[in-house]
Write a structure and sequence with these properties.
Helices cover 47% and strands 14% of the residues. The protein has helices at 2-13, 24-30, 49-59, 73-82, 95-106, and strands spanning 37-41, 64-69, 87-90. It has a three-stranded parallel β-sheet with strand order 1-2-3, with helices on both faces. Strand 2 (64-69), helix 4 and strand 3 (87-90) form a beta-alpha-beta unit. It is globular and about 30 Å long.
């Protein structure tokens, strides 16, 4: 949950409205707020992030979805492309890089 709190601080500090959830059920509960972007951790205890990402994209096609993981960048990028997601963020990226990636995804730009 450490990364979740750090991401929240960084994104809120940059002026984004942020809702967080640490389980897939919590993520589903946030959906009525109609977020523009979902940052989905690839490795969650209750459901893998790739599965949740697919559910989100299927049921909320206008929502942007990015995978987040500490896995090797090439693995995250490849999975993101395979699932036709909007992007990916490595937990090893510095906060400034993560913010740039969020902004690019929200602008509709792919990496």
């Amino acid at each position: 949950h450490k990364y979740l709190e750090l991401a929240r601080e960084v994104l809120e500090g940059a002026g984004y409205d942020v809702e967080t959830a640490d389980t897939w059920l919590g993520a589903i509960r946030v959906l009525p707020t109609q977020p523009d972007l979902a940052l989905v951790d690839l490795h969650m205890a209750s459901m893998q992030g790739d599965k949740l990402s697919q559910i989100l994209k299927k049921n909320h096609p206008s929502m942007k979805v990015c995978l987040v993981s500490s896995d090797d960048v090439s693995v995250i990028k490849g999975l993101s492309e395979k699932l036709k997601l909007d992007g990916y963020i490595s937990k090893s990226f510095p906060p400034t890089t993560a913010l740039r990636r969020v902004a690019r995804v929200l602008e509709g730009k792919k990496d």
